[in-house]
TrEMBL record:
Organism field: Shewanella litoralis
Catalysed reaction, written as an equation: ATP + protein L-histidine = ADP + protein N-phospho-L-histidine
Principal EC category: transferase
Protein name: histidine kinase
Residues forming coiled coils: 333-374
Amino acid sequence: MFSFSTIKKRNVLMSILLIIGLLLTLKITHWYLLDQGTKNIAKQSEKQINELVIFIDNALAHYENIPAVLAKNPILEQGLLDQQNPKTIDKLNAYLSELQLVTESSDIYLTDALGVAIAASNWDQPNSFVNHDYSFRPYFIEAISGKSGRYYAVGTSSNKRGFYFANPVYHKGVVLGVIVVKVDISLVEQQSSGIAIASQYEFMISDPDNIVFLSSVSGWRFNSLTPLSQAKRFALNSSKRYANRPIGELSFIPEFALGESNTTQVYQISSYEGKEKYLERHQLMPNANWNVHILAPMKPLYESLPPIMLLGATLYLLFALFVIYSLERRKNLARMRQAQNQLEQRVKERTLELEQANTQLKDTQDELIQAAKLTVIGSLSASINHELNQPLAALRSYAQNTQTFIGRNMIEDASSNIKIMIELTDRLADIIGQFKSFTRKSQGKDNATEINQSIEQAITIVQPEMDKQGIKLSIVLLKGKCQIWGDSVRLQQVLVNLMSNAIVAMQQSKDKHLHIEVYCDTKVNISIQDSGPGVRESQMSKIFEPYYTTSERQGLGLGLSISQRIIESMQGSITVENAQQGGAIFHIILPLYLREEV
């Protein structure tokens, strides 16, 4: 039993671990939600910025070709050649005013080669462009050099933001002046702001100097995204790009970047309304040389974190309670384990008994295999006796002759007889050794077994009976080594059994012929073919069953069944079929272990 202090310490430790786990769960949940939410916002921003860039490009492209078309009108060339004639200029002013209404542009004006406007669509307005010098504008410089000019700036006369498209006006290959079409980009800003409000994001467009001139937030306009040095302020004032409008600095503080590129970052932007975090993604518009920035507010993501984190904490606590419950349950299961161990012990004892019974069954099977061997030997005993008696009778005859030769002092003849007697003794020893090896009980040990050698040893055993029956034997063996992995004694038993069955089957045949052939590709195939009556179709499916026998193949009916089990134990198979010319063919198919051709 635990003491009170031990239980208290355990409870305190468990509480500390529970709190640490809760804090880790909250931290991991916060990180995961923030990471996935930011990635989702970035993915959505990529789609939004592409749509916004396409919209702005299309809006500006609507006016892009207007100056090139106007420059070809002879009225502009005539006005530049006859600009001192008031009637010509009045006609030109009226034409430009009409074009301004038709094209829905902000203003259209024509300058001479010095950059001074000689006619304009707003010629009758107080802030008319007529007689104003625009030679300092980059769009004029590009157009007067023979190129198409484009530029963003705040008008020095109108103080309005505009995008300028300019084109040279030629007379006999010489640039006389420049026609300029100004687009009021405040309309583009209004339409873009409507798109941004519908998609719940903010946007701003900056020039190459990082000055924001278009934005869905008015407080961001005419502010620099980077610090303004004195040199940069002087350059901006000299270019008059923003006329007399003051340029401030926007508090644009980077928090962190997404991925390896810097096209997507999270910024903190300060304004009079406070500090807000936005996920910023920008993209360059090559035609206008603008940078379009999409700013998706991070506030909705941050506001969604607490309830989800609360849910994560709840799930963690439920899991922790489940673990505590499981630990308590394990204590209750401890008592059941003892009974389970006792049951397992009984199962082990029963398994041991089954293993012993299985061993006895294997021993019985080995005895049955040995009995089948002896049955084969018994059926061949007459031939075996005949095979042994012939050398023994010859030995006796040569021994008697040797005794006579010695008595007559015929040493050479006696020596010749003794040599023959030794050869007969060796023959007897080979026959007896072969039968002794065959009848020996196998230990069931597998090793590399030479096929040719096993067939030759089996033929040695049945050769006497074949000679007695007058059976012709033809053998086709493989050249070189051909080995399988198995018990050589048991393989020899199968071969002797099949050959013996073939001899019995051919007893009533006139032409007695036994053909043995071995061929090999990926497996070893041994075929044993006799010239007997063959196997009836009704017997094909039963011939390998225990105790099944036929009138042609006498015996207990165990030989083929045992042979099949021996071959299957070597991962092989044994089949039977009838030859077309008559007789049965048994096929033994075994896995190849080693093949070396000569």
